[in-house]
Amino acid sequence: MKFFVDTADVKEIRELNDLGLLDGVTTNPSLILKSGRDIVEVTKEICSIVEGPVSAEVTATEYSEMMKEAAALAKIADNICIKLPLTLDGLKACKALTSDGHHTNVTLCFSANQALLAAKAGATFVSPFIGRLDDIAFDGMDLIREIRHIFDNYGYETEILAASIRTVNHVKEAALIGADVVTAPPATLKALVKHPLTDKGLEMFLADWAKTGQKIG
Ligand code: E4P
């Protein structure tokens, strides 16, 4: 499973990348707002840190405007992945951009039929939003399950990018179902390592080691 981090915070991206955990980055207009930085400047910096795809989202809603924004975003770096909303114009832009050799991420996916359309448009990634479905008392994981089933039925190569991740259990469930990628906030990715028995076990080993009076190396 690939791990993407869902942030435009360069410090966090650098830290996770240094750990060797990062396969890519996703951003969106809200995350750019949170960063307080210019979209081109911050996206360029992110692309220089991470080798994998960096999703940068268009904000136009009409096809030809989307294509203009996509051209501007694509100029930022070779690893830019153009993020497009799951609308008819977004799908049309996805098809055109994919045919031109760009990587695409169709975002704001909340149904299996929407994911099917993204796959038919040739999207590199489709982003079903788990947390936002859970928020309205749906089960986001059911959507991941349905999309996995449909894509396997037809051999679609579009990767399922489980997004709007809120908990470490979301990551585990998405992995069990077979999502190709998970994009999660930095804190959630870092929390995957935590287990109280690991902390307790390490504490005991270190205490016993100190009693031996030995040193390694
Ligand atoms: C995905 O690409 C989105 O940026 C993101 O996962 C949205 O998550 P949220 O619902 O926590 O805003």
From TrEMBL:
Tagged with keyword Cytoplasm: yes
The subcellular location is: Cytoplasm
Q: Which Pfam families match?
A: TAL_FSA
Name the UniProt key words of this record, in alphabetical order: Cytoplasm, Pentose shunt, Schiff base, Transferase
A GO cellular component term found in this entry reads: cytoplasm
* Catalysed reaction, written as an equation: D-sedoheptulose 7-phosphate + D-glyceraldehyde 3-phosphate = D-erythrose 4-phosphate + beta-D-fructose 6-phosphate
Q: Where is the active site?
A: 83 (schiff-base intermediate with substrate)
SUPFAM superfamilies named among the record's database cross-references: Aldolase
| A GO MF label | aldehyde-lyase activity
As for what it does, the entry says: Transaldolase is important for the balance of metabolites in the pentose-phosphate pathway.
Task: Return the similarity comment.
Answer: Belongs to the transaldolase family. Type 3B subfamily.
Q: Which PANTHER family match?
A: FRUCTOSE-6-PHOSPHATE ALDOLASE 1-RELATED (PTHR10683:SF40), TRANSALDOLASE (PTHR10683)
Cross-referenced HAMAP family: Transaldolase_3b
Write the protein's name: Probable transaldolase
Which organism encodes this protein? Sinorhizobium americanum
In the UniProt record, the gene name given for this protein reads tal
